[in-house]
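Can anyone check this?
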Amino acid sequence: MVTVGVVGALGVGATFGIASIAGASGNPGRGRTHAAAAAVTTAAFNFDVTVSGLTPTPVDVTGTGQVDFTHDAIGVTVDLPAAVAKLIPGGSASPEVVDVVESGGTVYLQVPSLAGLLGKPWISLALPAKADAGGAKLFRLAASALGNVTAITAFATAHHATVTALPSGIVDGVQATGDKIVSSFSAKGTPRTVTAEVFADSSGRLVQGDLSTSGVNATVDVTGYGQAVTVTVPPASEVAPIPLSVVASFLGASVHGGHRR
């Protein structure tokens, strides 16, 4: 569950986290002013994340998803390579497809290798009220950022990142303008650098975001703005609920036992 959570968070985080990459120090630069788009209600996306540290060699995790910002719901399908899939309890050294749904304050996971252990194809985790409220805020921030790339670069500049305009060109089949954002900061005394490139269409909406930092390289492509999406919550008969206390206990035992993943 920890491993699946990590790769799922990386994929979704790469999608939603572009707006918050600015660090604590750096030299502000000048980016491009993009057109301001209308409020984003729905979107589809795909992502490609290369991660170092989960396994002895870097792994490539890909996936697709769609999000309904009006109802705070998101569905993601993650393609796990064999090296990651075998770390899941009951998993084998074969690639695996994991489905993740968040809706109504509950996260649902469909992990094929866990189905035999739990007797149900899905597991669910009800988020505490504080986390659910934070998730709703994240949906609003993501909708705002995706629909207005200028707001992303303005946020980065305000937080002392370096922002420079990139040449215009064709990105994902559309004419796009872009900016490069570089943020340098210190994390527990260790220098870190986060680099991102964001590309906007003629309406100022995010077309593609690329992010690179220590151990992670991610690319997210966003399409289907305003088009109908379907985020389906699995029926209760197919779900095995897991209490938050059980997850907290498991994570605590893993950390104290030295089995971080």
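Reply from J.R.: I decoded it. The chain has a mean pLDDT of 81.
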